[in-house]
Recover the amino acids of this structure.
């Protein structure tokens, strides 16, 4: 595992400077010759299989690390199990190893998605050739895996904590089911928003009719998980933008304030409950609602 982490660091050290140069010069040659692109382009590896294995291992390591963390945090379990076997140090080492491995896998996934984005720009500019080959974008592979294996959805969103790409993955997931709905539920006098923005997705849950239509395609529990994690990612991005002095994200639309997002999150969960009175709000959904309500109360208090 340490060798794998070293490999990821080496790939990152080569890729990041090249990607920055590409963004400045739009010269695809810099990325074509990157170690990451050369590795993914070789026919000696099964690219799709490798990416699926990375996702499976990432989620599996997270589950193991979470289990170890619970044992360490529980006084009863920790005292009975770890002290009895005198393996506290081993448990801590395994936890750290698993966390570092998950972080390394996340860095690999992010680099590949960044490469895919740059490759798409190069394709549009006609800078690529047949020699570059054809490769399925990692985003599509991730979406396929978490769509058809719902058991992987929650662990993946918990372990993958890079807010920009996390939000993009969730928006792409929703866009398969909400693109037309967002057009129908859009207010005629409001700003143009579609399912490619978080505000647009929330707009799809603005009434019971559209919410019920979505829950016929996606289970209510999956919707809760997606909305809650998207809200977390949006808040993280907002904090980063505030720290960087950025007033608003171009991708999110300047018309959607944080207060509006919080109101729409609460409205979305309320409409989910209206579609099924027996539906239980998941713990992560309760966290999102509590956070949204707290932000709204803070905003209201500040205005007063």
């Amino acid at each position: 595992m340490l060798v794998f982490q070293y490999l990821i660091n080496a790939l990152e050290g080569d890729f990041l400077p090249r990607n920055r140069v590409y963004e400045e010069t739009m010269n695809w040659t810099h990325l074509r010759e990157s170690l990451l692109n050369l590795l993914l382009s070789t026919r000696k590896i099964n690219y799709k299989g490798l990416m699926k294995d990375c996702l499976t291992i990432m989620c599996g390591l997270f589950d193991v690390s979470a289990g170890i963390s619970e044992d360490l945090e529980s006084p009863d379990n920790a005292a009975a199990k770890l002290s009895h076997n005198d393996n506290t140090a081993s448990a801590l080492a395994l936890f750290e190893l698993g966390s570092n491995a998950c972080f390394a896998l996340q860095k690999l996934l992010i680099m590949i998605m960044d490469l895919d984005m740059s490759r798409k720009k190069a394709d549009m500019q006609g800078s690529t050739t047949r020699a570059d080959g054809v490769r399925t974008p990692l985003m599509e592979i991730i979406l396929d895996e978490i769509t058809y294996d719902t058991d992987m959805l929650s662990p993946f969103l918990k372990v993958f904590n890079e807010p920009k790409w996390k939000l993009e993955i969730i928006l792409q997931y929703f866009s398969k089911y909400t693109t037309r709905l967002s057009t129908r539920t859009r207010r005629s006098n409001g700003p143009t928003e579609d399912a490619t923005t978080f505000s647009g997705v929330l707009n799809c849950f603005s009434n019971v009719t559209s919410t019920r239509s979505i829950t016929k395609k996606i289970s209510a529990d999956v919707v809760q998980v997606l909305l809650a994690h998207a809200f977390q990612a949006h808040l993280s991005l907002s904090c980063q933008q505030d720290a960087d002095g950025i007033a608003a994200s171009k991708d999110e639309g300047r018309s959607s304030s944080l207060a509006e997002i919080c109101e729409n999150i609460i409205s979305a969960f309320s409409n989910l409950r209206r579609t099924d009175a027996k539906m239980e709000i998941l713990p992560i959904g309760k966290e999102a609602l509590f956070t949204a309500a707290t932000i709204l109360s803070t905003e209201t208090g500040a205005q007063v």
